[in-house]
Each structure stands twice: as structure tokens, then as C-alpha cells.
Design goal:
It is built from 9 helices and 7 strands, in the order ααααααβαββαββαββ. It has 405 residues and is an alpha+beta fold. It is elongated.
Length: 405
């Protein structure tokens, strides 16, 4: 009669092939981890281990074969210099290694001198070479420290630059948002002020409404100019096309010619520039507005264009009061005003010339000013010529629709 074992008495299943072989046991987990650590350490320090083996061979050669002289001795120190140049140990391992090499090589030389195998003069080589190695270590650590300081300084400069760029971007975005958001309430308030001015029955109330409307128009112009300056660095600030110079100057004279000044259109060269026509007209308007603010009725304002060194020079000259030499260095800054004849009643914000500089810089041009107090000022805009393939033989723009602007 046969008996069957209960299922819970079945032998445990072996999962490893080593368990199926009698007499083979799995090594402890700690031993495996230890061997892995040793293998990793040997891979990381294989160059140092090779150097240690080289030193031991040369020490053995010094001890067993004195006829080699100091060749193994010098080979040890040269290899120490080479391995330090490659590894750049920290200070404590370096000092310990130097002490070990000094004692080992010096001890063998002392034994050889005592036995009469070497001259006593060779003993002086040990401290001298050790001192030379220490000097090299000192210079190496100085260079490493200097490099680390330079990297730290570069990282600090990079962090400051990134922070400045972030702040500049935030400032630009704030100016754009603020100028844009101010446009709607200013327009609404201006509309109501104009209605109040027209509907006012009393002269005093109408005058007050007119003052409010004028100030709102002024605030609207300020918001528009701030928005223009804030967007000057954006990639879509300009829409360039070949633009003939003469029509731009003629249009500017027509816009401003109604004011009581002696307007004169000077010599105008036939040239074409690659520019944004609207932005260029805005820059000329700012220069003409500045000339009007510095002149009185009957003073002369002249607009002209000429060629100079392969560039087109647009010039706005006036015979007004001029600008002091101290103000010439700052008039292109934002919200800067010249001390002479520049006040709130004249309508100046101190942004007109800053707008001129921003527009001209976006065109890869430059702007200059020449002024003598009491004899007027001359502002010159330098713009590069349009490429030859963008201009027709007649000197007009080849861009579609340019003639209609």
C-alpha cells in the first residue's frame, strides 16, 4: 500500500542552478558587495596603482643592483612629478606620498652609502629633489586656486547678467503692458472731456474742460512714446523696405510747415535706404519737434539730405538758441531735457531724441548733433544705403506699393 504526502510537505523548489549541485554553496551577499567595491576602486585608481607598481620595481632595482646608479632613483621622482600633474592630489595625500617616496629612496641610498656602494654626495639629491617637487606642488595649487577663483567670478558674472536680463525683460514687459492698458482709459476720459468742453455753457467751465483734454492728449502721447521705446528691442519693431529719401523729407515739411517758422528744404540727394518708412518719418518728426521747441517765430529750420562715406545723411538744422555743450552728452537719454528753452509748456517729455536714437540704432545707423549756443543746432541721421538690387535704375524703390506711400 502506497501513501501520498500532503501538498504542504512537498520539497521547496530550487531556483538557482548552483543549488542543484551538491557541495556548492552561494557566497554571502557581503562578500559579493566587497568584491564589487574593490573592483570599482581598482578601476578608478588604476593609474595610481600602476605608478605604485612602477615605484616598487625601481626601489627593488635600487636595492638589488647598485650598479644602475641613480637611474631608478631619478625615474621614481620623475614619475611622481608626472603622476601628480595628471592627478593633482589633495594636499594631505600629496604630503603623505612625498614623505613615503622620500623615506624609501633616501633609506636605500643611506644603506648603499653605509656599505660603500655609493658616494655620500648622492644623499643631498633626496632633499633637493623633494624641495623641487614641493615648489612644483605650490605653483600647481596656486594655479588651481586661481582657476577656481576665475570660474567662481565668471559664474557670478553670469548670474548677474542673467538677473539683469530677467529684470530688463520684466521692465520692458511692464512698460509695454502699462502703456497699452493706459490707452483705453485715456481715450475714454479724453472723449468725455471734449464733450464737456463743447457742452459747457460757462466760459470758465469750458476752459477747465479744455485744460483737462489737453493734459489727457499729452498723457496719451507720453504713453505712446513709452510703448514705442519699450518695443524698440523687439524683432518686429521694423518693417523694412526700400524707401526713397526725397518723398520722406517732403512729407515731413508738409506736416510741420504750417507753424510760424522759416521752413527751407535744402539740397536733397536722390538716394534710397532700406528702412521702415513710418519709423523713419517718426524720427524726423521728433527732430523737427525738437527744432520747433528751440526756436521762435521767424527762425529758420532747414531739412536736407546728402551722401557721405557711402551713407545717407538726413539733416535737420535750426537757427534757434542752440544747446549747451554740457547738455549734448545727455540729450539722447530718456526724459532728458536741455536747460535752455525746454519746459513743460513747450510740450517736451524728454523722450523725442531718445526715440530718434532708438529708431536709428534699429536701422544700424547713427545720429549726431552739432550745436553752438546762440547759433542753432544741427542733427544728422546716418543710414546705410539700400542694396543695389533693391533699387530700380531710375533710383526709385522696386518694392511693390512703395510709390503709393
Amino acid at each position: 500500500m502506497t501513501t501520498q504526502r500532503a501538498p504542504w510537505h512537498l520539497p521547496r523548489r530550487r531556483t538557482a542552478a548552483a543549488h542543484d549541485r551538491p557541495g556548492r554553496a552561494e557566497p554571502p551577499r557581503g562578500t559579493v558587495n566587497w568584491w564589487h567595491r574593490v573592483a570599482h576602486w581598482a578601476r578608478v585608481y588604476r593609474l595610481d596603482l600602476a605608478w605604485v607598481g612602477f615605484v616598487l620595481l625601481n626601489l627593488l632595482a635600487m636595492r638589488l643592483d647598485p650598479d644602475w646608479g641613480t637611474v631608478p632613483f631619478l625615474a621614481i621622482w620623475i614619475s611622481l612629478t608626472a603622476i601628480y600633474g595628471l592627478r593633482l592630489w589633495r594636499l594631505q595625500p600629496t604630503i603623505l606620498t612625498l614623505a613615503a617616496v622620500t623615506l624609501a629612496t633616501g633609506g636605500i641610498l643611506v644603506v648603499q652609502v653605509i656599505k660603500g656602494q655609493e658616494d655620500a654626495d648622492y644623499l643631498a639629491e633626496v632633499p633637493l629633489i623633494a624641495l623641487m617637487f614641493l615648489v612644483m606642488v605650490w605653483h600647481g595649487r596656486r594655479r588651481v586656486a586661481a582657476m577656481e577663483e576665475r570660474l567662481t567670478a565668471m559664474e557670478a558674472v553670469q548670474r548677474v547678467s542673467q538677473e539683469n536680463l530677467r529684470l530688463l525683460t520684466q521692465q520692458q514687459r511692464f512698460l509695454q503692458d502699462a502703456s497699452h492698458e493706459l490707452g483705453t482709459p485715456i481715450t475714454v476720459a479724453l472723449g468725455h472731456a471734449e464733450l464737456m468742453e463743447r457742452a459747457a455753457l460757462e466760459t470758465e467751465m469750458a476752459e477747465d474742460a479744455r485744460v483737462v483734454a489737453d493734459e489727457l492728449r499729452r498723457l496719451g502721447r507720453l504713453a505712446t512714446r513709452i510703448l514705442l521705446l519699450a518695443s524698440a528691442a523687439s524683432p518686429d519693431f521694423l518693417r523694412r523696405e526700400p524707401v526713397a529719401v526725397e518723398p520722406v523729407l517732403a512729407d515731413a515739411m508738409e506736416r510741420w510747415g504750417y507753424l510760424p517758422r522759416q521752413w527751407r528744404l535744402g539740397p536733397v540727394t536722390s538716394a534710397t535706404v532700406l528702412a521702415d518708412r513710418d519709423r523713419l518719418a517718426l524720427a524726423l518728426d521728433a527732430l523737427l519737434e525738437n527744432a520747433i521747441a528751440h526756436t521762435e517765430a521767424g527762425d529758420q529750420i532747414e531739412v536736407s539730405a546728402r551722401m557721405r562715406s557711402g551713407q545717407v545723411v538726413l539733416s535737420v538744422a535750426d537757427s534757434g538758441v542752440g544747446i549747451a555743450a554740457a547738455d549734448l552728452q545727455r540729450i539722447f537719454h530718456r526724459f532728458a531735457r536741455a536747460s535752455t528753452h525746454r519746459n513743460r509748456e513747450a510740450g517736451g517729455f524728454g523722450l523725442g531724441l531718445a526715440i530718434v536714437q532708438a529708431i536709428v540704432a534699429a536701422h544700424q545707423g547713427s545720429v549726431e548733433v552739432h550745436s553752438t549756443p546762440g547759433h542753432g543746432s544741427t542733427f544728422e541721421i546716418y543710414l546705410p544705403l539700400a542694396p543695389a538690387d533693391a533699387v530700380t535704375p531710375a533710383g526709385q524703390s522696386s518694392a511693390p506699393g512703395a510709390a503709393s506711400q
